[in-house]
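Dig into these lines:

——
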Amino acid sequence: MKNRNNTEQPQNTDSYEMEDNRQSKTDERSRLIYDTGEACLADSCTSHNIHLLTIIGEIEGHECAGNQVKSTKYEHILPRLGIIEDDCTIDGLLILLNTTGGDVDAGLSIAEMIASMSKPSVSLVLGASHSIGVPLAVSTTWSFIVPTGTMIIHPVQMSGRVIGAPQTFEYNKRIQDRITGFIADHSSAAKEDLEKMMMENTKLTKDLGTLLIGEEAVQRGIIHEVGGIQHALQKLHRLIREQASSIEQASSVKDRHS
């Protein structure tokens, strides 16, 4: 279409560029979710950038899980946590859990790394967080579980050849102490209570242990609150604001004394 001076009207290139940028970000998010089960959440109201991480299926250790088994690979999660910690544009971490448990060393290594991060973190148990999934759930700054979410606390299970000797029992006990000690250090549950729940023989049909559903996990002091994604995000934004305020106050005090 031409104007009266017989010249073409300039096109609004800004709107096209904005649309291209939005589409590019959408495609990038889709690829991230498809490839790794992760997403970056940017809240325009709070200006907080949150990294969403999922831990699902079996926690895979040094041996690969079967092709038909959904799994979380610790060699993928550990580097990702390092990147999140070192990225100054990421303000907080939200972890969604739906895991049946898995390798003890792999699960504890992920849990220890989450617990040692400086950025605020929140976990949300969806479906299940069984066995080694319990330390993962309590490793964050704050934890939630949905009303129908489940957690199973049970003794360490060994596979392969087992030597019938006192040393085997002692080795097994030390592994369990690592797990119960971590849970006790990162929750309000006492180590003695956790050991009692582990050895309960009236709750599970095929195993020793205790099944906790929703509010029961909160009552036992393992999880902080019952809630869903809305509550988890609200809490994480609050933690981010509190940390920023604390850093600002500390900086102000330092400036006054310098």
In short: Helices lie at 13-36, 74-86, 104-115, 133-138, 166-185, 191-198, 215-219, 229-257. The longest strand covers residues 48-60. The chain has a mean pLDDT of 86.
